[in-house]
Amino acid sequence: MQTTESIKEMVKDKYSQIAKQSKEQNESSCCGSSCCSAVDYSLFSEDYSKLEGYEESADLGLGCGVPTQFANIKQGDVVIDLGSGAGNDAFVARSIVGEKGKVIGIDMTDAMIEKARLNNEKLGFNNVEFRLGDIEKIPGTAGIADVVISNCVLNLVPDKEKAFSEIYRVLKDDGHICISDIVLNGEIPEKLKSLAEMYAGCVSGAIQKNEYLKIMNKAGFTNISIKKEKPINIPEDVLDQYLSKEEIATLSNSKLEVLSVTVYAEKKARENCCAPGCCSG
Ligand SMILES: C[S@@+](CC[C@H](N)C(=O)[O-])C[C@H]1O[C@@H](n2cnc3c(N)ncnc32)[C@H](O)[C@@H]1O
């Protein structure tokens, strides 16, 4: 049976391999994302090349949305990018926060952090920092971020409740989040669920959309809204590797939807308990 720790080790191994390759290599070579993982990330990822702040060497084609598009980031903000990979979204965020803001990328894979730091050195930003750490225990003090973004990562985190409560903790009062991720409507077959490659490929660690939104709500987030939603089709040749013809037919009749979503939510400041009308009853 897979434990939380063994899942994380498998995810780290996978993303260490990917970190050592370019986007093109990942797309075309064996042990690239489309080969080792059985899931081709180009199914998910968006074209970043026209975005302000785009850095080609940070773009490994691993995202499933553009969280900065709806993140309402302002000049001077402190932004945390969770599962920052080689820094793709972090550098886009840096172009918005400018010199007076700060961007902190967090990733648990050493090779990704190394790659992101090399990219940052090349760009010469002294207000962009990449920290090695786990989203279930974010390396950052409470209330440091105006905005938290993340791109195609939380589906990979085994304890999503812990992840969202950590995100809530590091946000300032009145801060907000914008997260692109993979969610499901309907159940994926057990056979696919148990495949490490499907987990690392951002499919089998994904949870139901409703459950995802409930977890956000339970963590304390309000004003939760889905800004963008896009269905993802797992190609038949991928399914062919693992399922029989009958199982593929059952799956296509099952109305399972694999969705890439970009979700926005806010952390509302707690009411001051000694404000008029509160303590006084
Ligand atoms: C699909 S990639 C996305 C990378 C980046 N956001 C992008 O769009 O290019 C997932 C990233 O999340 C990181 N990751 C997965 N689980 C994590 C966790 N529990 N804590 C921190 N990072 C994690 C992986 O190391 C990997 O770099």
Descriptors for this entry?
281 residues, alpha/beta, Rossmann fold, 7-stranded mixed sheet, 7 strands, binds S-adenosylmethionine
Task: Give structural notes.
β1 (78-82), α4 and β2 (102-107) form a beta-alpha-beta unit. With 281 residues, this protein is α/β, with parallel strands linked by helices. The chain has a seven-stranded mixed sheet, sandwiched between helices. The longest helix has 16 residues, at 4-19. It has one domain (4-266): Vaccinia Virus protein VP39 (Rossmann fold, 3-Layer(aba) Sandwich). Helices cover 34% and strands 21% of the residues. It has eleven helices and seven strands. It has helices at residues 4-19, 23-28, 33-36, 88-97, 110-123, 160-170, 190-193, 196-200, 209-219, 236-240, 245-253; strands at 78-82, 102-107, 128-132, 145-151, 171-185, 222-232, 257-266. The model is unreliable at 29-37 (pLDDT under 50). α1 (4-19) runs parallel beside α5 and α6 crosses α9 (209-219). Bound molecules: S-adenosylmethionine (SAM). S-adenosylmethionine binds at residues 11, 15, 60, 62-63, 83-85, 88-89, 106-109, 112, 134-136, 151-153, 156-157, 202.
